[in-house]
Design brief:
heterodimer; A: 111 residues; 6-stranded mixed β-sheet; 5-stranded antiparallel β-sheet; B: 7-stranded mixed β-sheet; 11 strands
């Protein structure tokens, strides 16, 4: 069945780069997404990448997609304390409007 | 611009009581609407989605139901809450040519005691 996997925790020092990884199973996914959830809040769409792209950059965020390995990563440059949150990877399910979410990676940024 | 509202933000209910959570979207028409539940320390589970008024698809068997009485209104209900219904409930919408890009509300934290 469909499954999106992420590591549960990541801890980085302020100013360093963070890399959050995700593996997915549905090779027909049209889009892949990264969402951010701050404590007690809803999910904020950070960025998404179309499946025919390998990379997308948006300010401090870089998304890399390896379709062969079904691996997606989110790199945050110059990580700040305000980046501390849970980051969810998601894939579109069988080209429907439904999304399958990973369990989320909790990013902790320390000074 | 589009906005999504969920209320209440927090709710504490006794076991066996009814539930009604409401979600409304502004600034768009004919959106897809979704209800998710996030259990503590876990990812998101899709509960219901709707592509139009009165059209509801249920993703998992459960004690909850959903209704869409108006184009931009989505309601999550239960007749009798269980302890296992506790969690963080999120409503989302998508619209336009990119209906698989979903935008989320702020969520409702439900505690069933």
């Amino acid at each position: 069945g469909e499954d999106v996997e992420q590591s549960l925790f990541l801890s980085v020092r302020e100013g360093d780069s963070s890399v959050i990884n995700c593996t997915y199973t549905d090779s027909s996914s049209t889009y892949l997404y990264w969402y951010k959830q701050e404590p007690g809040a809803g999910l904020q769409l950070l960025t998404y990448i179309f499946s025919n792209m390998d990379m997308k950059q948006d300010q401090r965020l870089t998304v890399l997609l390896n379709k062969k390995d079904k691996h997606l990563s989110l790199r945050i440059a110059d990580t700040q304390t305000g980046d501390s949150a849970i980051y969810f990877c998601a894939e579109s399910y069988l080209n429907t409007d439904k999304l399958i979410f990973g369990t989320g990676t909790r990013l902790q940024v320390f000074p | 611009s589009q906005t999504i509202h969920q209320w209440p933000a927090t709710l504490v209910q006794p076991v066996g009581s009814p539930l009604s959570l409401e979600c409304t979207v502004e600034g768009t028409s004919n959106p897809n609407l979704y209800w998710y539940r996030q259990a503590a320390g876990r990812g998101l589970q899709l509960l219901f989605y709707s592509v139009g008024i009165g059209q509801i698809s249920s993703e998992v068997p459960q004690n909850l139901s959903a209704s869409r009485p108006q184009d931009r209104q989505f309601i999550l209900s239960s007749k009798k809450l269980l302890l296992s219904d506790s969690g963080f409930y999120l409503c989302a919408w998508s619209s336009g040519p990119y209906k698989n890009i979903q935008y989320f509300g702020a969520g409702t934290r439900l505690s069933v005691l």
